[in-house]
Amino acid sequence: MIKMEKGFRLVMQMNGFNIYNNEDNIVSYENNAGIFRLLVEDEDIEVFESNINAGKSIICQPYESKDAINVLIILEGKLFYTNERKYVEAGSRITFKNLKETHHLSVIEKTKLIMIRNSKHFTSQASRTDKVYDLIHQIQEKDNYTEDHCNNTGNLAVQIATMMKLSETQIENILHAGKIHDVGKLEIPEDILNKPNKLTSEEYELIKKHSQYGYDIVMKETNDLSLAKIVLDHHERLDGSGYPNGLKGDEVSIESRIMAVVDSFDAMISNRPYKKPISVHSALEDLRKHSGTWYDDQVVSILTDIINFTVNSSNLDTKKP
């Protein structure tokens, strides 16, 4: 569950020289992504500690770094730096200032880091994240597969968006929408959601309604149209064969095109009651087969590059990236 704590105690103060208790923090957020503590805050600086779970994402945005250096100190863990396709491990320090594009780090192993920045975005960012992770918690309570699938999809989607150099707003929307794109399945009966054999036509039509249900839930809980629209359209296809509205071509946003590809990919390589997973290679082949008709060519190509690099660099023949 999301937890927010406030408890800030000054131990010693002398002519502007302040000492705080090591366990104190100004505000703390805990959710499925990890634990985040704002340690120091002043008019022109904030310092926070992040303990981030594997499978999550860190995005460094241009608006955070205007005219001021930002510092990330990696204390524990391992990250995958999507932009340059390389790994960053404990002991590394990252700085950024006046970014021209978004930079993305995927959390490979549970990571602890300290961030120092000349900006005050912690509370506003945490507030939006909390709303998203509250929905993720609801998903988890109903279906662990759906939570894992949403996390995998969100992480891959934001990597692709970063490689495509989309705007910072688009990338942030994709990150959050990916995590909750299947939230509409909360409205689907569990006996249908986890049916071990083929669905009837009536049951399949009910499953298809999860896109609209998801849109309604996201609007009700967050009133965020940008997120809700991606959730609504993530099963649309370029040739108009998707659902719920049969959108075609440019009617399908790039955010939803990305979501369509990664959603299908993760579903194919995942084990479900009604089907066995297929290999990563077979899943990529299926995406390429439908590239240009169902799926966006560029999105499929970038996903293929990311997956191949990740698998090759880890020397694993695995079904999961």
Automatic annotation (TrEMBL):
Stored PROSITE patterns: HD_GYP (PS51832)
The organism of origin for this protein: Fusibacter tunisiensis
SUPFAM superfamilies assigned to the protein according to its UniProt record, in alphabetical order: HD-domain/PDEase-like (SSF109604)
Domain of life: Bacteria
The protein's name in its UniProt record: HD-GYP domain-containing protein (C-di-GMP phosphodiesterase class II)
Domain (HD-GYP): residue spans on this chain: 124-319
